[in-house]
Structure formats: structure tokens, C-alpha cells
Write a structure and sequence with these properties.
Elements lengths: L1 E4 L3 H13 L14 H8 L3 H13 L3 E5 L5 E5 L2 H8 L3 E6 L2 E6 L13 E5 L16 E4 L4 E4 L3 E3 L2 E3 L4 H7 L38
Antiparallel strand pairs: 1-3, 1-6, 2-3, 4-5, 7-8, 9-10
Amino acid sequence: MMLLLKRTPEQESSLQSYLQQIQSPTSVNFRKFLAPEEFGQKFGIPDTNLDTVQTWLAKQGFVVSKMKKGRMAIEFSGTVGQLQQAFHTTIHRYLIDGIEHWANSTDPAIPAPLSNLIAVVASLNDFKPSAHLIKGPKARWNAALDRFIPDLTITNGSAEYLYTSPGDAATIYDAPNSLNTHLASNQIQYDGTGFTIGVIEVSTVDPSDV
């Protein structure tokens, strides 16, 4: 598991100032980035606060395994019973879509004396983000151009075009209308009534085209 820690107000103010300086060309710190260890020493939790958190973890029976270089997160391990008692929550098993998972049933509680040092307890479940990858169209390698050419690209003379229909546009931009082939069954549909849309173009617009 992991504890995410809190900076002191002074550290947070200093960090925000530094982040602005490294992005400002007029600052002496412009693009002067810090190594993880340097960042931890300057903006990480102070040693006194770190000792307090580690001592508390040890008293609860946890084993501290690693301190992140940025000094804002502590990895630790322990039993379910220790976790439930220390953070006043319960861990349950859940069956979702035929797959068993485990997670806390209520939000963990941070002990009051440590509320200004600990931001959150992380990794209290085995849920992982699922990929939302949607495969694009097939393409072919063009050795002469040294790049992939999508199969949907149409060549007209010396120019290449990728034509899209209203249905393509509706699907690409997840428009809430019946042309969207991925429209959810319970999603509200709109037909544009009562709305005005402005289109900004870096070109001369022919009113007859519009």
C-alpha cells in the first residue's frame, strides 16, 4: 500500500513559485529542472514529519518498504486486519462481471494527529484502469515518403484527402445524435434546435458554401 503525504504550507507556496519560474523565460530558474532527490530535499516532507509517520506505521504493525525519491509517498505493507484497525475501514471481496476483486467498503480515516501530514491512503483495492483503445483504420507503408498512408486516404491528382461523412464526424466527436454509431442506448439525443454554432476559419469563407 502507499501513503501520499502533505507538504507544509510554506513548501507548497515555494513549490508553486518554482513551477512558475521554470516556465518563465525571464526567470533565472528557467528550465532549471531538479533531479528526483533534489526535488525531495527541497519540496518533500521534512525529516521530523517523516519520522512521525514512520513511527506511527510501525506502531500499527506495518512494515515500511520504501520512501519515494520525491519524499511525498511511503510504500508499506501489512495484514488486512492491521489495515482495517489503523484506518477504520473494512476490506471486502466483490464479484463484478464474473471477476472477483477486493476493495475497501468505506473511505479510510486518517488519525487526527496525522491529518496535516497524510493526504490519502492509496492502493486499497485491486481495480486497474481498463484500456479504452479503439483501433484506427489500416494503413500501408510508403517507402518513398517514409511514412504510413491510411487506407482511407484518397488521392486526387497530386493531393491526398481523407473524406468524412456526417456519420463519421458524429462518431469521431461523440455527437449526441443518431448518426453516432457509438451512441449509448440511454444517451439523450439532440438535433441542434435552439442552438447557434460559430465556426472559426483561417480562410476566406464563401457565403454560398455556408
